[in-house]
Automatic annotation (TrEMBL):
This is Amidohydrolase. PANTHER family: AMIDOHYDROLASE 2 FAMILY PROTEIN, NODULIN 6. GO terms for molecular function: hydrolase activity. Residues 256-422 form the Amidohydrolase-related domain. Pfam families: Amidohydro_2.
Length: 438
């Protein structure tokens, strides 16, 4: 009997029942996600963002012709009780009719997410819910992931509004020294906060993953900026670009790299992991600079800091797997490909993760954001991919079923629980039946 036929739910018993049960029922820690829209703002963002990182016509037109969209349409139609053949517009219409909290519950209940680690630095803070609001849908309270570039930008914006333009060299030098000190103090406060479980960097979006260890690498948080002319010049350029803007966008490489290194040092001292966006993203990314392989010198330079490579590093998954295998402080998150990548691609990514990465160092996330359906699809498709790929490996005789069950439980829950020091116990429900989406 073929494996896929065995899992179709057509009456035949699965050859690997305990593996299937673990894949679809074991509680999960979502180690990287973002807040949901408030009910009054539920239609403020194009719903197509659930299946693509594209923008403009590439999102609202082209993304609808991807296999990811066709699959999401079928799965959401089933979730909403729509008939076979329902269209994307049918799905959008149905979801808009549902009361918002009921919509969220419908998405979260089958997902069995026990705890969410929420990066609240995505923006749109005036239209999204606060972190703790999400606790009504999970067994364990959500925790915060602090985006370091947002911290830096907020400090710079406050500074620049107080500086006269043009500013003197002396004033800028004092401001840079003050920025370094305040950045260090703020990051240290965040690291000491038990509600904060990790930092997050989007340097991949801004200047790429090749974070430098240049002449300002030893720049102490209280040092005189005149001793670091290159960093001062970068700060001066950021100030010049700020003029006429409401806030700072940090995209000056030397200053971006300094912010990352400052965070890495503080995070290592406080045993807080640092998540890095790698690979898959919107058009703001320079794809050639998004491979985590560029991080290798920094990983080696900060051996006491835990690096979490987010989003499967797609399409550079094998690069991430290599780093995870050879450096004890590197971990790999296999998220965001659900539901952005087609099903066969998701399975390929999982296979690539398992080619080299130690299974005690892989973690799962939804990268859920804005729409509750992003959490649903991000969870159910990940569970399905794990089930299929590990079933194939067991079928080939390369892995025992009990070992496969342990890999699933670790990937979904225990690895993240350990890495982020959450101290949770898996909340095991008594489940008589569970969905199979194959």
């Amino acid at each position: 009997m073929k494996l896929r036929e065995a899992f179709t739910g057509s009456g035949s018993k699965s050859p690997y029942a305990s593996l299937q049960k673990a894949a679809f029922t074991y509680p999960a820690i979502d180690n990287h996600a973002h807040p949901l829209l408030q009910a009054k703002n539920r239609l403020d963002m194009p719903f197509e963002g659930i299946i693509s990182e594209a923008e403009g016509d590439a999102l609202t037109t082209d993304a609808l012709h991807t296999l990811a969209c066709h699959r999401a349409t079928r799965e959401l139609a089933k979730l909403f009780g729509l008939p076979d053949g329902a269209s994307w517009e049918d799905v959008k219409g149905k979801r808009s009719e549902l009361e918002y909290v009921d919509l969220c519950k419908r998405c979260f209940e089958p997902a069995r997410i026990q705890c969410i680690l929420i990066d609240d630095g995505l923006g749109a803070n005036n239209i999204v819910h606060g972190i703790s609001w999400h606790d009504q849908f999970t067994h364990s309270p959500a925790r915060r992931v602090v985006r370091i570039e947002v911290i830096a930008q907020d400090i710079l914006t406050e500074q620049f509004t107080q500086l006269s333009s043009p500013a003197s060299v002396e004033d800028l030098a004092k401001a840079l020294s003050s920025f370094a000190q305040k950045l260090g103090d703020t990051l240290t406060q965040c690291a000491a906060d038990p509600f904060v479980v990790a930092f997050k960097s989007i340097v991949c979006y801004r200047t790429g993953m090749a974070v430098s260890l240049g002449p300002d690498a030893t720049f102490s948080l209280g040092a005189e900026s005149k001793a670091h002319p290159e960093l001062f010049a970068a700060y001066e350029r950021v100030f010049a670009e700020y003029r006429g803007r409401a806030e700072v966008r940090l995209q000056e490489k030397l200053l971006n790299d300094y912010v990352v290194r400052a965070a890495l040092k503080i995070a290592g001292n406080h045993k807080k992991p640092v998540q890095f966006h790698t690979g898959l993203g919107d058009s703001d990314i320079t794809l050639a600079l998004s491979s985590p392989a560029h991080l290798q010198p920094v990983i080696k330079a900060y051996p006491d800091t835990t690096f979490v490579l987010l989003h499967s590093s797609y399409p550079y998954t094998r690069d991430a797997g290599y780093l995870t295998a050879v450096y004890p402080n590197v971990f790999l998150d296999f998220g965001e490909i659900f539901p952005f990548v087609a099903g066969h691609g998701q399975r390929s990514v999982i296979r690539q993760v398992l080619e080299l990465a130690p299974t005690n160092k892989i973690m799962w996330s939804t990268d859920g954001h804005f729409w509750p359906e992003s959490y649903y699809l991000g969870t159910m498709q990940a569970r399905q991919a794990l089930c299929e790929v590990l079933s194939e490996i067991v079928h080939l005789g390369e892995l025992s079923e009990p070992a496969a069950v342990q890999i699933i439980q670790n990937a979904l829950f225990h690895n993240a629980n350990r890495v982020y020091r959450l101290g949770l116990e898996p909340y095991i429900k008594c489940i008589r039946s569970y969905p199979v989406f194959l």
